[in-house]
Protein: PIGT transamidase
Amino acid sequence: SLQAGLAVLLKAERLFHSSYHSQAVHIRPVCRVRFLQSWWSSSSVLVSRDLTRLSLVQDASCLAVSWELRQTLTVVFDSFSSGQGKKDWSLFKMFSRTLTDACPLASQSKVYVDISPKNKEKELLEVTPAPSSLHEAVVQGDKRTYAVYDLLSPSLFNTSRSLNVQLKWKRPQDSSELPIPVLHAQRYVSGYGLQTGEISTLIYNTHPYRAFPVILLETVPWYLRLYVHTLTIITKGKENKPS
Structure:
């Protein structure tokens, strides 16, 4: 196989049978950093020497620009429904493959698993194998905890050269619905024909006080013909005219 690193998981049969998948290419200009060189002297009775220090400083004028290319793949697996109400999952269950090594050209290759509890009390869940480290971050105003697997760490892979990250619940699982994210959306198609056919997208922000910027990208089915002048935006019951 010519695949290595995380690309080993990209099995088309599994990706196209997921609940959702999307690919994106992001290109943006980035201001380069420049080196500043400074000197200072250290002298004593018998010794006198000059030392040089290099430091990185962001170019405020942004005269030198580099281009950043970022490719992303988003895949959603509904393991709760397909697993008959069980929330346990693993890389092998989702992709029918496991990780064997890191990409030889990558300077950084990591897997992050969200192990944040949905309640204040700590969830009785178990992630195997043990992660290389834990990482905490604030996402949409909520504190999240991630188990981090560094694929460049030689001790991460077992003797079979296979890494199958698994998450299991230690207690019997209830059949309650999964918690809804703070920022979520619903989308549906209604009506028919050019006169009454429409796409409705509902975006919900349930955070008590914080607002979030949203970029909406609509994928229009081939059988619908839309017109920009029919776009309507309603926020809290009031219509907003696009600028």
In short: The mean pLDDT is 77. The longest strand covers residues 20-31.
